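TICKET: design request
STATUS: open
ATTACHED STRUCTURE:
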């Protein structure tokens, strides 16, 4: 009998209110896009506040496989130099590990005139097509074809021969906007991206590109203008704090009835969450970069929709649902971004949650006394939801497949332990 190594798991004893302070790490969805932007120049891109998560490791491996130099100069300080990139084919085994790696396509196509990749992997939370990425490239003059499972994009005139255009996004896709914006940065002429995504991570990428010499206007709006340039240079940028991680800690503090100070919180981009938590009866003291989360009294039911920014982030949908299992009354949730992001419901129900889900909506009744169970982390955020539930459940919860959570949360159990949680990693 081969002794297959079991993926790591969390063992959680519920019941401890979280107390103390925690610093928010750098944002996964900013860091990954910024790493891909390094492919647009032959000079050094240095990123600071880079989170220690496995998605950064797998993308580093992918960039290295293309010929880039990727090295940590010190903890959280990453240097990337794509001066010697000679391969433009993203290895399938690496592209299937995390979705952001598909954002190598725009930079490679624009700078080198050729890029090829299999469809990206990432969390199984819906269809997740890439049509807006590919149609954006085509509108800039590229030809896009299939070669077996791989997409092959070519700029007929070779390196630097993409041209500007008016790109309408069928859906304000985050990575679609980032990919097209990066391709447009080195295209000839002006590209107008209509119905662009406005997420903070998209805005931060645009600021990095401008720091590299790009000419992007309308940052943060749904109409982004990119005036192409011939060459981009090196730059240093700080990865913004992770708003999803900050939200996850805020929800954890509220759920456990604790008192937690969240440091380096990106407060200005958390409006939707903070508004909902206040309606639910959570006490929030907010500073410019700090949040103090506490509670005196029961949680109240609150309904919400998961929407593109500045709406409530779909990545906080599942953690919020966990919180609402402890609230008085009936909460209604509508997921408007992904068409299959309700898988977490089954895992929370194993812990005694009263949730009914249909299609992309769920009805949560509370408060219910949750109990320990054996559950799985089905993806990064569904994993966070069951972990939060385990923190308030009676007894012991075993959470398997937590490698999903390692993709998006840095040293999560140690930071929760520091706040008084009883969570072991085995
Ligand atoms: C990014 O994914 C994030 N990932 C996701 O975070 C996040 O949930 C999502 O944006 C929405 O905020 C990264 O940044 C690496 P989308 P992305 O393209 O870019 C439709 C996490 O947990 N669509 O904005 O893949 C699609 O069907 C992850 O950190 C098209 O129709 O998301 C989907 O319903 C999970 N055509 C919707 O847009 C396209 O070509 C949102 O997708 C592309 C997308």
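STATUS: resolved
RESOLUTION: sequence designed for all positions
ATTACHED SEQUENCE:
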């Amino acid at each position: 009998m081969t002794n297959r190594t079991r993926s790591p798991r969390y063992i959680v004893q519920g019941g401890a209110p979280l107390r103390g302070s925690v610093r928010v790490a750098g944002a996964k969805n900013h860091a990954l896009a910024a790493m891909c932007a390094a492919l647009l120049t032959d000079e050094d891109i240095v990123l600071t506040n880079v989170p220690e998560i496995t998605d950064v490791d797998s993308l580093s491996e992918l960039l290295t496989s293309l010929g880039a130099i990727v090295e940590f100069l010190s903890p959280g300080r990453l240097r990337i130099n794509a001066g010697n990139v000679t391969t433009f084919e993203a290895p399938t085994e690496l592209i299937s590990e995390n979705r952001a790696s598909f954002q190598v396509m725009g930079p490679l196509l624009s700078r080198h005139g050729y890029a090829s990749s299999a469809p990206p992997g990432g969390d199984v939370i819906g269809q997740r097509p890439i049509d807006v990425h590919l149609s954006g490239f085509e509108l800039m003059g590229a030809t896009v074809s299939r070669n077996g499972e791989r997409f092959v994009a070519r700029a007929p005139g070779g390196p630097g021969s993409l041209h500007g255009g008016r790109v309408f996004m069928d859906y304000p896709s985050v990575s679609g906007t980032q990919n097209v914006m990066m391709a447009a940065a080195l295209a000839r002429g002006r590209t107008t991206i209509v119905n662009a995504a406005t997420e903070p991570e998209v805005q931060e990428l645009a600021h990095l590109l401008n720091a590299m010499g790009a000419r992007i206007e309308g940052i943060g709006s749904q109409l982004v203008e990119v005036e192409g340039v011939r060459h981009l240079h090196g730059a240093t940028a700080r990865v913004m704090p992770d708003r999803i991680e900050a939200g996850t800690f805020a929800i954890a503090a509220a759920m456990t009835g604790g008192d937690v100070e969240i440091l380096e919180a990106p407060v200005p981009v958390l409006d939707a969450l903070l508004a909902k938590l206040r309606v639910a009866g959570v006490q929030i003291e907010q500073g410019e970069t700090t949040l103090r989360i506490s509670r005196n009294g029961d949680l109240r039911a609150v309904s919400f929709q998961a929407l593109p920014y500045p709406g409530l982030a779909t990545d906080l949908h599942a953690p919020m649902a966990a919180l609402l299992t402890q609230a008085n009354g009936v909460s209604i949730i509508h997921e408007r971004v992904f068409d299959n992001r309700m898988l977490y419901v089954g895992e929370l129900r194993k812990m005694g949650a009263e949730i009914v889900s249909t299609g992309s909506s769920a009805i949560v009744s509370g408060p219910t006394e949750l109990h320990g169970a054996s559950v799985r982390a089905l993806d990064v955020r569904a994993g966070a939801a069951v972990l939060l539930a385990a923190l308030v459940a009676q007894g012991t919860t075993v959470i398997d497949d937590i490698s999903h959570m390692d993709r998006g949360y840095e040293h999560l159990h140690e930071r929760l332990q520091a706040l008084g949680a009883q969570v072991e990693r085995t």
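CLOSING REMARK: Residues 28-29, 32, 99-100, 123, 126-133, 170-171, 173-176, 197, 199, 314-315, 337-338, 380-381, 408 surround EPZ (CB under 6 Å). The CA atoms of residues 109 and 115 lie 5 Å apart.
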